[in-house]
Amino acid sequence: MERRDFIRVCAASAIALQGGTGAAAADARPRSYGRTQLTDDGGRPLRATRLAVGENYVFHYPFEGTPCFLLNLGKPTGRNVPLKTETGAAYQWPGGVGPRGAIVAYSAICSHQLTYPTRQISFISYRDQSTASRISKPNMIHCCSEHSEYDPAAGARVLGGPAPQPLCAILLEYDAAGDTLHATGTLGGEMFNTFFSKYEMRLALEHGSTIRAQQRVTGNTVVTPLKQFCKQQVRC
């Protein structure tokens, strides 16, 4: 690593630890990261009505190295769901968006062991009626690392396992005229600093450098079905 790159890494890390990048949340209030359009792999605006019900989709936001789930649950979600972070900070999840209020997005980083989907493998995913097992419940996000389970229709509330708090919600904005989606921020307990620290070397390899993994996503972000994003999905 060149000296100037080393200095940039140190500076970026210092800012992140101070919360200057929004990588550490002092509370559970909504945090804005800029309006980012969700697109398909061809760079075209993603059409919300074309999202398959029950399919796991992945995109990166608010940083290049932080993956998120995008889900069409097929029916309206709960509204203004009261939730709390691990530290007891209270917040209200507004509910799904889209024509039926069924589209939701969450950080795909498990709040227990920080398990996340990589290009090689994913131990965490949404399970619908057809993919649920004797261990996992249907219509839940299940992490096979320690069997934490989250309800995506209720702000990713923890319904089982050792997870200490809900998944961090990604705030979405739906434009009915264009049938398009934008990510605008996060809500709930962020764990980005801890995530960057734990997986520093892996993220540097996956994204070319630590700096790139911690860069803010701007303009647009590509949405990919999980089955295309990673080689293997672990089902438990």
Distance between the termini: 40 Å
Order of helices and strands: HEEEEEEEEEEEEEHHHEEHE
Class per helix and strand makeup: alpha+beta
The CATH homologous superfamily:
Rieske [2Fe-2S] iron-sulphur domain
As a percent range, the share of strand residues is 25-35%
CATH architecture verdict? 3-layer Sandwich
The average pLDDT value, as a whole number, equals 90
Major sheet size, sense and barrel closure: 4 strands, mixed
Radius of gyration: 17 Å
Question: If you consult CATH, what is the topology?
Answer: Rieske Iron-sulfur Protein
Number of helices: 5
For the record, what CATH class applies? Mainly Beta
Domain unit count: 1
User: How many β-strands, per DSSP?
Assistant: 16
Could you give the order of strands across the largest sheet? 12-13-1-14
Ranges with pLDDT <50 over ≥5 residues? 1-26
Shape estimate? globular
Q: Helix coverage percent of residues?
A: 10-25%
Description:
It is a single chain. This protein is an alpha+beta fold and 236 residues long. The protein has a single domain (3-233), classed as 3-layer Sandwich (Rieske Iron-sulfur Protein). The chain contains 5 helices and 16 strands. It has helices at 3-17, 192-198, 200-207, 210-213, 226-229, and strands at residues 31-39, 57-60, 67-72, 81-84, 90-93, 103-107, 121-122, 124-127, 140-143, 148-151, 157-160, 169-175, 180-187, 220-222, 224-225, 232-233. Strands 12-13-1-14 form a 4-stranded mixed sheet, with no helix packed on it. It has a 4-stranded antiparallel sheet with strand order 6-3-2-15. A hairpin with a 6-residue loop joins strand 2 and strand 3 (67-72). The N and C termini lie far apart (40 Å). 39% of the residues are buried. The model is unreliable at 1-26 (pLDDT under 50).
